[in-house]
């Protein structure tokens, strides 16, 4: 389905351009990265939904600060353009390209089982959109709109734990207190007997760790705080220093599961000495595939539905650190990318009428 018109660069219409005659039933507004470091709002065609499709009016979306700021800044390696392509991405990296994948809205038109319900979709920032009905997941009544934008991130953390396989009584650290790291820490804290430490260079993450029920330690204090003999470390800092800290904290035959996306950055770690003598394991985890431990029994749809149910836990609200109206998103993104605007998950709000 052509989500964007054929007019303009990379299939986008400019905001000042009207709809092409007869091309669609309506229009919507979408955020795109015009070129690295520059965002804008454009007008897009909105097709009539087919029999197995749904039209969604967006009420909130979340900015994934790690992935989206890499895309916004042009930090994705050309070799990964195809792998990084989102399910409803319009345009191509490095730009013009749509951005975002944490969307919450209300189904306006579609199958009876969905109309009027709140749904989550892995869709870019856009006021309305039409997608296959199978691409949206109903949101449980106990999950508020803003918290629901975390579903895609919590799904990533769920997959990481399926990859990691933590056991009752494990000693675990999460290195990197961003969206994914904090979600993973909360999940780990719910396993009986698991001792969890959040390690982050930002001392302000102490308050989030308290709210999530885990211990906090700065990197220089991590070995003393944890005992330095860990069974498992979840790494989510997207830095070489964080990955080295993760390896250094492991005991014999310990495992690091790396969730970080480094983009173009080169990462150097020391793999001599203790890495071999302790028989350590470094394993990647990526949400594009269901973790092997559950791949034969769970689909990505099952995994996302599980994440939404887990979001009935109000502790996750600590990840929501600010709101901005949709029309101001082009001005917000440079501040998020530079770090001028501190954020864990920044929520984008949308006008009532779309």
Can you tag this structure with a few keywords?
354 residues; alpha/beta; seven-stranded mixed beta sheet; 27% strand; Quinone Oxidoreductase, Chain A, domain 1; 24% helix; six-stranded parallel beta sheet; disordered N terminus; Rossmann fold
Task: Sum this structure up briefly.
Helices cover 24% and strands 27% of the residues. The protein has ten helices and 16 strands.
Description:
- The protein is of the alpha/beta class.
- It has two domains: 9-150 and 311-349, Quinone Oxidoreductase, Chain A, domain 1 (Alpha-Beta Complex); 156-284, Rossmann fold, CATH 3.40.50.720.
- The chain has ten helices and 16 strands.
- It has helices at residues 65-73, 145-148, 151-164, 179-189, 205-212, 222-226, 240-248, 274-277, 300-310, 329-338, and strands at 26-35, 38-46, 53-64, 97-98, 103-109, 118-121, 128-132, 136-138, 171-175, 195-199, 215-217, 230-235, 250-258, 281-284, 320-325, 345-349.
- Strands 3, 5, 6, 7, 8, 15 and 16 form a seven-stranded mixed beta sheet that branches.
- Helix 1 packs across helix 10 (329-338), helix 3 (151-164) packs across helix 4 (179-189) and helix 3 crosses helix 9.
- It starts with 25 loop residues before the first strand and ends in a 5-residue tail after the last strand.
- Mean pLDDT is 89; it is low at 1-23.
Helices and strands in order, then pairings?
Elements (H helix, E strand, L loop, with lengths): L25 E10 L2 E9 L6 E12 H9 L23 E2 L4 E7 L8 E4 L6 E5 L3 E3 L6 H4 L2 H14 L6 E5 L3 H11 L5 E5 L5 H8 L2 E3 L4 H5 L3 E6 L4 H9 L1 E9 L15 H4 L3 E4 L15 H11 L9 E6 L3 H10 L6 E5 L5
Parallel strand pairs: 9-10, 9-12, 10-11, 12-13, 13-14, 15-16
Antiparallel strand pairs: 1-2, 1-4, 3-5, 3-7, 3-16, 5-6, 6-8
């Amino acid at each position: 389905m052509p989500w964007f018109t054929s007019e303009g660069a990379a299939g986008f219409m400019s905001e000042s351009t009207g709809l092409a005659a007869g091309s669609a039933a309506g229009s919507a507004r979408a955020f795109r990265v015009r070129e690295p470091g520059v965002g804008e709002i454009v007008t897009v065609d909105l097709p009539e939904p087919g029999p197995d499709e749904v039209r969604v009016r967006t009420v909130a979306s979340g900015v994934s600060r790690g992935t989206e700021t890499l895309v916004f800044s042009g930090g994705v390696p050309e070799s990964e353009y195809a792998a990084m392509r989102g399910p409803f991405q319009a345009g191509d990296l490095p730009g013009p390209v749509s951005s975002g994948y944490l969307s919450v809205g209300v189904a306006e038109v579609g199958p009876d089982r969905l109309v009027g319900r709140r749904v989550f979709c892995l869709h870019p920032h856009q006021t309305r959109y039409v997608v296959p009905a199978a691409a949206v997941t109903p949101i449980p009544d106990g999950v508020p709109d803003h918290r629901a934008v975390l579903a895609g991130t919590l799904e990533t953390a769920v997959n990481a734990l399926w990859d990691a396989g933590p056991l009752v009584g494990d000693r675990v650290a999460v290195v990197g207190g961003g969206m994914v790291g904090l979600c993973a820490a909360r999940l780990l804290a719910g396993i009986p007997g698991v001792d969890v430490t959040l390690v982050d260079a930002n001392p302000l993450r102490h308050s989030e760790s308290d709210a999530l029920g885990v211990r906090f330690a700065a990197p220089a204090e991590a070995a003393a705080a944890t005992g330095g003999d860990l069974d498992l470390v979840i790494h989510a800092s997207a830095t070489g220093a964080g990955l080295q800290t993760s390896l250094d904290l492991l005991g014999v035959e310990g495992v690091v599961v790396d969730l970080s996306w480094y983009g173009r950055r080169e990462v150097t770690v020391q793999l001599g000495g203790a890495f071999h003598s302790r028989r350590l394991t470094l394993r990647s985890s990526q949400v594009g595939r269901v973790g092997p431990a559950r791949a034969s029994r769970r689909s990505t749809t099952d995994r996302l539905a599980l994440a939404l149910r887990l979001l009935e836990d109000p502790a996750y609200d600590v990840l929501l650190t600010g709101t901005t109206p949709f029309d101001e998103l082009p001005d917000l993104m440079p501040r998020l990318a530079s770090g001028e605007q501190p954020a864990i998950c920044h929520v984008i709000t949308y006008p009532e009428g779309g």
